[in-house]
Design goal:
about 80 residues; mainly beta; 5-stranded antiparallel sheet; 5 strands; about 0% helix; globular
């Protein structure tokens, strides 16, 4: 069965909740803590900062990575 991509808008990502399909450093639940604005400001948003819920460790990822259902599930599952 083919999985559909998560439909997203970069402007609505802030504080959205995500579950890693494969845990990252034993972390499974993440929150988009920051949408990184481009330079110049009228450019395209490319990156977001995700924060692990338990450890508060943050990392930057391309926001489009969140559309891959093999890597991320929307919400905390």
């Amino acid at each position: 069965m083919m999985q559909r991509k998560n439909s997203l808008s970069p402007k609505k990502l802030l504080l959205s909740k995500w579950t890693a399909v494969h845990p990252i450093q034993k972390q499974k639940h993440f929150l988009v803590s920051k949408v990184i604005l481009p330079e110049p400001p009228d450019g395209v948003i490319e990156l977001v900062e995700i924060e692990a819920v338990l450890t508060k460790q943050a990392q930057c990822i391309p926001w489009r990575e969140l559309t891959d259902p093999h890597v991320w599930k929307q919400g905390w599952v």
